[in-house]
Amino acid sequence: MFRFFENLVNPFAPFREDTPPDRYWPYLRSQLGNFRRVLPVMMVSGMFVAVAETAIIAYSGRVVDLLDTGAEGFWAAHGWELALAALFVLLLRPLMIGLNSLFLENVLVSNMQDQVRWRGHKHLLGQSMSFFQNDFAGRLSNRVMQLGPAVEDTVFMALEALWFSATYVIAAGIIVATMDPVLAIPLVLWVAGFIWYTWNVSTHVGAASEKWTDARSLVTGRIVDAYANVETVKLFGQGNTEEVYVQSAMRRHRARLSRFLRLMTEMSAGRTF
Known about the structure:
Layout: H1 2-6, H2 24-32, H3 39-67, H4 74-125, H5 129-133, H6 137-179, H7 184-228, H8 230-236, H9 241-270
Helix pairs in contact: 3-4, 3-6, 4-6, 6-7, 7-9
């Protein structure tokens, strides 16, 4: 079963070997083309899971209302309804969650990372000799390896978190509005504030993340360069010159990582209000 889902997408399928787009969204679209058949199914499965979770909460309220009618004749009047509800919770809901996980983990995650890395690797191999002579081999390889998880995480979070949350909130808003439209106003205001805060902070997080990634690539490049040329370092290195050279990159990496983590802490704390 797992192999069936894993083989729904071929990460090494032929593709147009043009220069990748240099902008964020066009680049993401270029990587998602190979997943165009399964993306709608992923979205539908995620929507069903979110609606199911909302429905369970809503039905819990109905069960409380039914209990208020008294114990006499309760099972005779509502036994089949509760049995169907139990069947949904114990069987249908796990099946929906499992199917959604199969698409997210075994179709998306298992293929997207290596697809991005493979295409990035092929693009780099087409560069000139001077391109490789003007940069660290470790830095370039680190960029290729980092790019896969970065693209995959973006798509995964869009489907697993944003799409799920949007469906969940919309379903909850509809349920609340059917009781009393006024009750939906606080939910709408909270969602608007949450979106504004997250969008505002995420712009700073994106910039800090880019600088952190650059610093990490620099550290990897200098370390790999030292190992790859260890004979030269041993023969001609003076004192602790090589250590200072690498440590300066690590200090820069630490500073940029600290800035990134500060923003992540601020965002996590701010979104709890």
